[in-house]
Amino acid sequence: MFRIGLGIDSHRIAEGGPMKIGGFDIPCELHLVGHSDADVLLHAITDAVLGAAGLEDIGQLFPDTAAENRNRDSGEMLKLAWQAVEKAGFQLVNLDCVLRLERPKISPHKAAIRRKVAELLSVDESQISLKGKTGESIGDIGHGRLVEAHCVALLSKNQ
Ligand SMILES: [Zn+2]
User: Fold this and answer.
1) Which protein residues have a CB closer than 5 Å to ligand 1 (ion)?
2) What is the CATH number of the domain that holds 51?
């Protein structure tokens, strides 16, 4: 049996680096703002795998009203969510992710981000795909005010 899931997240950009994306600190003069560590890619991945497994979403599992989730490591949240997905009997086939942002450029850090995500899920890097897209100088993404991450996850379950 195969199950597909979609996760989308966005965070506002502010001055002062580094920018944490996919559990990796990109050296630059910008960072993302949020209640947790604002790791936009890991939040989209977490929702995609939870959605594919038919479990509660990241906001229900880790509410931003809870004090313990303030500045929380999103890698830790993804690991906990992934444990629940595996406990429900699922394995990862693959993740396909798109980051929409004006800067920093993602391509020089793509391999390191994929490696980090693969490590968090204990899967092979070949199962993680990542693409960077700009906003064509239009809207909040194009003007460098927002970063958006999209992720589709395919899971399989032995019956
Ligand atoms: Zn988020």
Assistant:
1) 9, 43
2) 3.30.1330.50
